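Researcher: Re-running this chain for the archive, since the previous output was lost when a drive failed. Same request as before.
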Amino acid sequence: MHSMLERRKWEPYLWLLPSILLMTIFVIFPIFIVFKLSFSEISKAGVVGDFIGLGNFKAAVTDKAFGTVMTNTLLWVVSVVGISTFLGFIVAMVMNSPFRGRKIARSIIVFPWATSLVIQASIWNYIINFEYGNLNNVLLNLGVIKDAVNWRASYQIEFMWECGVGIFVTIPFVAFCVLAGLQSIDNTYYEAATVDGAGYWKKLTKVTLPLVRPALTVSTVLNIIYVFNSFPIIYTITKGAPANKTDTLVTYLYMLAFYDQQKGPATALSVIGFVLLCIVAGLYMMISMRKEEL
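Model: Regenerated structure tokens:
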């Protein structure tokens, strides 16, 4: 009996051991290596040299493009996550309502998220092209415009298009996360609210939103991580041009490491991004959990 109890005590850890080993080898160990490299001198050939303290961080932060890149990253994450969460919630509410062809509609909505980001960005790159883009062709044929419009007239407009593409491909993910939360809500809550005389908005704010908050928390935290680390959209549409004006942190450190051969500062930027993500995701989860307790 004693040996059986001991076996049951250790059995969960044995089942978890393969996952722990994989996490250690492919996640924890690489993170440790990156942190170590960020404090070391790295040549253009990738040879790791002596310990230089905060030298790489100083070089990365004092670069003239750093301020622009961080501002772009903030705008990119806030706009894509914020707007896609709002629109995704609306789409989820619609998809949760009974109507003819709902299964087909759900299948169609998932396409932008299921398709490769490189393909999505390439398609939109073609659509907004000044010379042969579909957007100009459609508007000209409909008589909405008389002459072709340059939809990429400035880097600000290009960055707005990139944010738009990011929102477009992120909405399905939020919608299906929220939809899963909506389908887990028991109808008795709404029936009780109806008996109490609650209208649509009361049900939405007092029943739906509190009960779907865990799903929203999961989708938002994952969205922050995915969007912050998103590389294909920015790189495919503009590659950060002109002069890093449309770069985010991820595309900038990539260009810094593999085009400018400044691997030390690039490694330091990756550490900065990792720390920022941990702080933002942790704060958001703490605030959400505190709201649930209240």
